[in-house]
Design goal:
The protein has 328 residues and is α/β, with parallel strands linked by helices. The protein has helices at residues 3-17, 41-51, 70-78, 96-102, 142-155, 161-174, 177-198, 207-218, 230-235, 248-262, 271-274; strands at residues 20-26, 54-62, 82-89, 92-93, 106-109, 114-115, 121-122, 129-130, 133-137, 140-141, 241-242, 279-291, 294-307, 314-326. The strands form four sheets. It has an eight-stranded mixed sheet, with helices on both faces. Strands 4-6 form a two-stranded parallel ribbon. α3 (70-78) packs parallel to α4, α5 (142-155) runs antiparallel to α6 and α7 (177-198) crosses α8. The chain is flat, with a radius of gyration of 22 Å.
């Protein structure tokens, strides 16, 4: 579907909701995936300036996650233009995407809507070396570290100070102390961000409810790839979830499907299929920020070159640019 038809869907949703609708899609196409990152902030600002002040802004969001600080900045930026902020989640809205949802007054989740835990893995120069790639570092899961300590204390009966020191020493032998310090700092950061985002709601939440939500999203789901359905989000985690009516639900899904087709999310990016001759340039779109006023796309640009040595049919991919580009 061309942008012209997609704008019609955006208009229909806006009219039905009585809101200004901004769409933010980070593509998860294999080999050219994108993530929530700080560079999108100025793109949001461009669209929000075109909106001006609005009674309500809806954010149509699809993402696998990304930088955990960006949702804090985006939520504050959106609230410069409106008092009421709502996220529409037709499908995946994981990790940093879930964090951004916490800053919204409501989360409108379709039948396929999914949120995720907000317990990221962290990587810094002190993390363990990847045995398969000496230049890379292995990510350390925040909750894996705290689960190990809980296992030692609760299941293995480690209770004395000496036993606790031994358990921690074993951990330090595998992970650098400064990497563990970074894990703890990010653990505190995530909890702090989640609480602050929840405190931004028009109708303040009770402190007990905020603690319940944060505990569930950081500690009590036990798997980072746990997919939270709208029923679980509403009934067990106690998030402000709204179920779309019979008019809105198909519009949300149609808009998601259009973005999925436009970005070829279900088809891995295969350089060999893009190569024309022995060498060519390529561009591939892997994300969108769109409204009725304009469109910005995240584009990978580079060159493809056939290499028959050491084996036939090999294609060298050189990415020269990764950037947001204003389309209209």
């Amino acid at each position: 579907m061309a942008r012209k038809q997609r704008v019609e869907l955006i208009k229909k949703i806006s009219e039905l909701r009585g809101s200004a609708l901004l769409c933010y899609i980070t593509g998860d196409r294999e080999n050219v995936s994108t993530r929530i990152a700080p560079d999108v902030t100025k793109v949001f600002y461009r669209h929000l300036e075109m909106f001006g002040e609005c009674p309500q802004i809806d954010l149509f969001l699809y993402t696998r996650g990304g930088d955990v600080l960006t949702p804090w900045r985006l939520a504050h930026l959106i609230r410069e233009y409106t008092k009421r902020f709502v996220v529409l989640a037709p499908f995946r809205c994981y990790s940093a995407g879930t964090l951004l949802c916490l800053g919204a007054d409501e989360i409108v989740m379709g039948k396929m809507g999914e949120l995720g835990p907000i317990d990221p893995s962290v990587v810094n120069t002190f993390n363990p070396q990847d045995p398969n790639n000496p230049t890379a570092r292995l990510p350390v899961s925040i909750e894996d570290v705290y689960s190990y300590l809980a296992l030692a204390g609760e299941k293995a009966g480690v209770c004395s100070n000496d036993q606790q020191v031994k358990a921690f020493t074993l951990l330090v032998e595998q992970i650098h102390p400064l990497a563990l310090g970074n894990v703890h700092r990010n653990y505190m950061l995530i909890r702090s961000l989640a609480k602050k985002l929840l405190a931004m709601h028009q109708q303040p939440l009770r402190e007990g409810r905020i603690e319940h939500i944060v505990d569930n999203l950081t500690e009590k789901l036990y798997a980072h790839n746990h997919m939270i359905s709208r029923r679980e989000a509403a009934e067990e985690i106690n998030l402000s979830v709204v179920i779309p009516d019979s008019r809105l639900e198909p519009l949300m899904w149609s808009l998601y499907q259009d973005y999925s087709e436009e970005l070829a999310l279900n088809e891995p990016f295969n350089p060999a299929e893009q190569l024309h001759g022995d060498r060519c340039e390529f561009e591939v779109n892997s994300g969108f920020v769109e409204s009725i006023f304009g469109s910005d796309a995240f584009i990978f640009s580079g060159t493809l070159e056939r290499r028959d040595f050491p084996e036939s049919g090999h294609v060298k991919v050189s990415i020269t640019k990764q950037r947001w580009k204003t389309i209209s």
